[in-house]
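Example 510.
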Amino acid sequence: MPKVTFIEHNGKEHTVEAANGLTVMEAAVKNLVPGIDADCGGACACATCHVYVDPAFAGKVGEKSDMEQTMLDFANEVTDQSRLSCQIKLSDDLDGLVVRLPTSQH
Amino acid sequence: MSGMVVIGAGQAASQLVASLRAEGYQPPITVIGDEAFPPYQRPPLSKKFLSGEMAEDRLYIKPPEFYAQANAALMLNVRATAVDLTAKTVTLADGAVLPYETLAFTTGSRVRKLTVPGADLPGIFYLRGIADVKAIQPHFEAGKRLVVVGGGYIGLETAAVAAKRGLKVTVVEALERCLQRVTSQQISDFFEGVHRAEGVTILTRTGVHGFDKAADGSLVVHTANGDIDADLVIAGIGILPEQEVAQAAGLVCENGIVVDEYARASDPNVYAIGDCANHPNPLLGRRLRLESVQNAIDQAKAAALSIVGRPKIYAEVPWFWSDQYDLKLQIAGISAPGDEVVVRGDPATRKFAVFYLRDGHVAAVDAVNAVPEYMIGRQLIAQKKPADPAKLADPAVPMKSFTA
Ligand SMILES: Cc1cc2nc3c(=O)[nH]c(=O)nc-3n(C[C@H](O)[C@H](O)[C@H](O)COP(=O)(O)OP(=O)(O)OC[C@H]3O[C@@H](n4cnc5c(N)ncnc54)[C@H](O)[C@@H]3O)c2cc1C
Ligand code: FES
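Predicted structure in complex with flavin-adenine dinucleotide:
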């Protein structure tokens, strides 16, 4: 099972394990990592699961769909590391993934 | 200390627990649910859970440990049957009596049932909970003939999943068009066209008069347009607020449990949140009852603030979505008959939006695969800024220019 490290805005780290096929958002929710609201449950409809993907994994997390890209355009504090975590599926390739969380999802 | 008792363990209940603890609420919390599952998301029930792409535990809004960690007792498989507002107690079906200091109804809604002759025959299903989908799944096989009664969002989503699975699908709608109660002719026409192109038969102005069992054990659906043979029927003809316990307790109910803008019911110690709550929305300038995840979540957040003594008015632009085939419909605001309808983009490209203007500003938007229209639309609805219909209709005018 791939490990994912979430770093809260205040620097607090949470390293969790989650099954392949789950999304990064689900890995956070299942493991009670705070800071990801995921109001729509992964339907790419709310943009409250925003994370910053560590540049080392930029090539591995897959491409953004048009839908995700345009949703992100409307999130806060967006950078070129921004992703919607419900749109990144976990696989062995992503073992060790590090993502940072924004100050707020709203 | 008796603390908080929450009746109903769904979307609103789980958010209420999370928000109460986040806002520093200390007393014990007890959540009572009559289903066998911890609070779960319903939207995938007619989408990826029905199609089999999503396993059951992925529906759970929070893992079971969450409730333990939040020091909230989750009592499942048991129904609250009565509330005594004077004694401040809740009675459960098993006879237990729980005292409360503060009570919340997050009881959601229940499906409207067909009342025509034969409506209780085996093979006729509804789609509200995990148990419903589990009952449907063994019959949900390629080649089977499915009749969907009701062309609302849930009916059409079910039809989409079934068509992809290879069932032979007929949607029967009593009104003139599918989605008539919730959207414009343009959106209805578009979705009816999409379904027909996928091989779904759509019969509008077609009421269902009854059901019979055929000689081979399958079903016959009697409609205003003749009989239809079916292996299974799924009805999605609307829902009713789950308000009986509240009403019997003496709380004011009228199309839902009547609450104020802080989610407070007609008793000072009682709140109602989510599908079951008839609430005022200051942005819309009227009372309404919503059946959406957004409403359950945002109203629960507002109620939590009231409960901890930092009341904040619940005033959000309603939003909703529906997934059918490769299409994502995103909706903000509430459209109404009589709104000026502005179409932006060509429906034939499967990427377009319909704006609804009232008193010169955007009151609602339905966006198909059109995120900027949806996201900016949400802002325009909240701002009530005058909008020029000609510019809105022109895809060459960027959406961002409307908020500038
Ligand atoms: C198939 C389907 C698809 C949907 N799709 C979408 C969508 O795409 N987008 C969207 O925004 N919304 C969608 N919705 C609507 C959304 O799921 C609901 O609005 C939301 O679940 C409401 O939350 P709630 O907490 O008010 O009620 P619920 O989540 O329904 O929870 C209420 C719970 O209370 C229980 N209960 C009721 N009475 C009692 C009692 N007396 N004692 C104990 N327990 C009781 C019920 O059994 C239920 O478990 C969909 C709904 C369905 C059914
Ligand atoms: S959870 Fe809603 S967009 Fe990711």
